[in-house]
Structure formats: C-alpha cells, structure tokens
Sequence to fold (464 residues):
Amino acid sequence: MWHTLQTALTPYILSPLTVLLCLLAAAGWVLGARRLARQGRAPSVWRTLSFFTGLLLCYAVIHTQFDYYARYMFFMHRIQHLVLHHLGAFLIALANPLPVLAAVAGDRRFPRLARAFAPLRRILFDPVVATVLFVGLIFFWLWPSVHFDAMLSLRLYELMNWSMLIDGVIFWLVILDPRDPRQARTSGFGVRFLMLVAALFPQILLGAYITFSEPGLYDVYAICGRAWPLSPATDQVLGGVLTWIPPAMMTILGALVVLRYYLNYEQQGD
Amino acid sequence: MRIPGVLIALFAVLLVGCGESRVDFHGKDITGVMDDLSFTLTDENGDRVSESIVDGKAVVLFFGYTHCPDYCPMTLTLLAQAMNTLSEQQREQLRVLFISVDPERDTPALLKEYTAYFGPEVIGLTGSKEQLDDVTKRYRTAYGYGDKDEQGNYEVSHGLAMYGFDKRGQVRLLMRNDQPVEQVADDLRALIDL
Fold:
C-alpha cells in the first residue's frame, strides 16, 4: 500500500522548476495569510482551501505518475490540461490570491518594480487579450505539428504545461475578481460574461472537431507508444470529448460566480 | 497559421543550439531534442551490454516485440529493404538495434532467431523492467501490456518511431514506418555520412 502510494507520487521526470514554483506559491500564501491575520484581515478558510486544492491538483497532474500517462495517452493529456487551464487555475483564482501574495512584502513597497510590471499586467489582464490568449493557447498547443514537437521535447513540454497554468490563472483572475468593478476599475460583469461566451464556442468547436475527425490527428501517441494498448480512435474520441464538455461546464460555473458577484453589488447599490 | 510557424522556428533555434551540421532528412530532424545513445541491456547471447557495442557506427533504434503481428515485422522489413540498397561499406557503418519491450516472452535465443531474418546488422536487445524503463524514458516512448487471453497471449503497446543516431551517438533523426523505402535509404545514407 505504502509502496503503491510512493510509486504513484514519484514524478515521472523530476522537474526542479515545478517543485520550486509550487513551494514558492504555497509559502507565499502561508506567509501572506499570516501577515494579513495580524492585521485582522486573514483570508477565510474557504479561500485557503480553494487555493491549496487548486495548487495540489496542478502539482498532481504535472509532477506525479499521472504525468507519465499524460505524456503517453491523448485523453490523459486532455485531463491534465483540463486541470491546469480550467479546474486548478479556476480554484487558485477563486481564492483571490493576489492580495494575500502581495502581503508577503509587508509594508515594503517596490514602486519601481510595480511601474515596470504595470504595462505587462495591463496587457495580460485586458479582457480581449486574456480571452484571445486563453483560447489561442488551447488551439496553439493542440495544433498537430506543435503538439508533436511538444510531446517529444522535454523543454517544450514543460513550457506547454506552465504556459497553460499561468494563462489559466490570469484568465480566471480577470473573470473571478471579487472587487466591485466600479470602484476597482476592473472589467465589468457584462464584459466578463462576454469573455466567457467568446471562450466557450471555440472550445466546443475544437472539441467537436477532434471528436469527429478521423483517428490519427495526434499521431505522436502512436509514434511514441501508448501507456497501454488502447485503440487510437477511442483515445482521440475521449480526448475530444474532454476538450469539449468539461471546459464548457467550467465556463458555466464561472458565469454563475460572476452572476453572484453581480447580484451582490446590485443589492448594495440599491 | 503564420504565428505558430514563427514560434516553432524560435523554439527550434532554442532547442537545437548551435554548431551542429545541418542535413535535410526526409524524416524529422530531432538533433539535440533527446539525449545521446546510452543503455544497459541484455544482448542475443544473454550478455549485459552497453552502447559501446555500436561505438563508431551510425545506429537506428527501434522498440518492439517478436510476437508483434504487424508493426515490428513491417518496420524491420522496411529497414532491411532500405539497407539492401546501401553498399556493403555503408552497411558496415550502420547497426539496427531492436529493443524488445516484452522480456517475458523474448528470450535472447528467440531474439537471435528473429533478428537473423532481417540481416546481420540487426541486433536484438532486451532487459529488466528497470533497464527498459530507463531507455524508453530517454527516448520519450512508452510501452504497456494488454490482458492475457486463454492461451496466454497478450498485446504489447510500443512506439513506432525509428530513432537515428550518428556515429558519435548523438540523436539526429526520427523516422516513421510509413516512409517509402527510398526515403528511408536516403536518410540512412545521410546518417552514415554525418
């Protein structure tokens, strides 16, 4: 039992970068939350739970034995990206982590750093850019020739996964920002609805395209061998459905959260 | 799609690094994408061997199993046909490594008998699970076993790629078994000349 667990948790290919970034994120939250608690502004248990569940899920799909299956089965790869780009990123963003992570700095301010990063942040958090990047990255990494290279090259593979996670978190941070848009001057709730709708349909189309295409769209899994003998057609259909339906459900979930915020602030406004 | 093209080119530059001599393969150039040739396995005589058995020769590496009904015999036949178009001198500079990922059934003796069909340049290898895991991980390939039927037969999933290494043991080329014989022969010649 212990041995099985140990095997399951051992990363298929050790990535120091992944360990470092995950530890930094976890340590950042713990430190920031303690600083905030001293000021009586501790994040709620739910936020903490959401953050760590999201982080753990992402870690689990890229740095355990799961990663082996994600490299050698198309549909497992789609589950991996579902967690990185949708579920895990969604939970991390739902925890509203930026104020907590910013609290790590305490009273120190870094005006020069903030100024340097302000334009980048403005661009990445722009609703149009965030949506185009969100959908664009899904299409980019699923472009068959790009996908082929990413599965062969360790560096490209790592770049693929981290770009999906970071982009997912940014997109969901824009969607799930809990502040009143009128005061915080963030994207309005209507804009966020439009973002979700704009992201929804291309994903549905792509998922359906993969599902109904001739088998062999992603032949890298045949070239490199599958983790177990599963027919390429089944693998592709499963992968297509996983690209199609769960992301669409996450979009609805996002819309429900936005709706809740909207109703909250509407009531306050009255 | 122009943008991915530009990005791939950028990544390719990052991946490939500099100073490599460039060749135009029909197959996919994977110079620098994977590690140099290295393994510890058991050969057809039951001896423990390493990559030093092919020192100074160009190598085509292929994973499979002797009970394979389709891909392995097809691929080895394709390689044998391509090698028939090479001169004897060229053939002497090339070795084909057939690594069986089914050590339970593929004994050294069976491997010896099997590879003999495809020519003297073909060397059969296999190993323990740890040894096979090590070499398959190195070349980004996986294998797995299906359920046994009543006769104890089972299917084995394995990669279909042929990996080409130059004489220094550097990975250069990824060929697929749907490449025509002439193209495979061209690529083998290019590999030998590197």
Summary: The two ends of chain A are 58 Å apart (CA to CA).
